[in-house]
Amino acid sequence: MKIKITNPDNEKAVPIIEELSVNLYLRFGSDGKNSFIDWDNNNPNFVFITAELNDEIVGCGAVRPINEKTGEIKRMYSKYPGKKIGQSILNFLEEKAKENGFTDLVLETRAKNIEAICFYEKQGYKIISNYGKYIDRPEAVCFGKSLI
């Protein structure tokens, strides 16, 4: 598997992001696109990646800065379950976050997304109080992980 840093507007990345959005909408009634609109892609601490297997884009993910020391994992997606695509993407994003000086990562997923909750817990993430726009949103569950 090859993991590549790219721009979410890249023509090769757009279809996997759209697939993620459709998947989320069908499963949870929200496509998650609104959390991807206001990103500063020119920020050097913003990282968007795609995962490629046999010349097919099979996943994506991003880290965006929350503040100097905290990054937020966003738009994590693996097209094929059980192939360690998500784990590879998350490991890559965690390493990039460390390189960019982040000491902590946070993320949000839906409380109904049991697969994601189990995945993040297996990767060492712990449930934290909801932060930012997820405060007072019972459908959201937030996670955090120290990188040090």
Brief summary of the model shown:
With 148 residues, this protein is of the alpha+beta class. It has 3 helices and 7 strands; from the N terminus they run E-H-E-E-E-H-E-H-E-E. The chain has helices spanning 14-28, 85-99, 114-122, and strands spanning 2-6, 47-53, 56-65, 70-78, 104-110, 126-128, 140-146.
Secondary-structure arrangement, i.e. CATH architecture:
3-Layer(aba) Sandwich
For the record, give the distance between the C-alpha atoms at the N and C termini, rounded to a whole number: 27 Å
In percent, how much strand structure appears in the residues?
Answer: 25-35%
The helicity comes to 25-40%
Let me know the number of strands. Answer: 7
Query: What does the main sheet amount to?
Result: 7 strands, mixed
CATH topology: Aminopeptidase
Number of helices: 3
Q: How many distinct folded domains?
A: 1
Report the structural category: alpha+beta
H/E series: EHEEEHEHEE
Gyration radius (Cα, Å) is 14 Å
**Inertia-based shape:** globular
Fourth-level CATH superfamily = Gcn5-related N-acetyltransferase (GNAT)
